[in-house]
Specification:
The chain contains no helices and eight strands. By secondary structure, it is mainly β. Strands 1, 2, 3, 4, 5, 6, 7 and 8 form an eight-stranded mixed beta sheet that branches.
Length: about 110
């Protein structure tokens, strides 16, 4: 799991982040969640097939003030649902990457 050190943010505060991941296991589906600061994550579904893939998250994190261009602390998690020992589903975090990301103004 990796998070690129640059991303973009447009005039409507829509953030685009990207990176790479690799996973495999009992479930072939997972999700990449990215949080910008303390704002709710933006996410995308991904496939776990053992190969390296590119992921891209695109959305407006909220609640809170709009995200602006500049440095932002971003946490990205590769997660999937698995059945726990009690038979109930649970979220399992497979990998995490945290870093300061340079959010650049997106071309209009």
């Amino acid at each position: 799991m990796s998070l690129n050190s640059t991303g973009t943010v447009d005039s409507e505060a829509v953030v685009t982040l990207s990176g790479t991941y690799r996973c495999s296991g009992p479930s072939s589906y997972a999700v990449v969640n990215s949080s910008v600061g303390d704002r709710v994550a933006i996410s995308t579904s991904v496939i776990c097939d053992g190969a390296e893939h590119v992921w891209v998250n695109h959305g407006r994190p909220n609640p809170g003030p709009l995200v602006r261009a500049g440095q932002a602390e971003v946490t990205t998690r590769l997660q999937r649902w698995e059945t726990g020992s009690n038979g109930f589903p649970r979220i399992v975090t497979l990998a995490v990457d945290r870093k300061s990301v340079d959010l650049q103004a997106a071309a209009q």
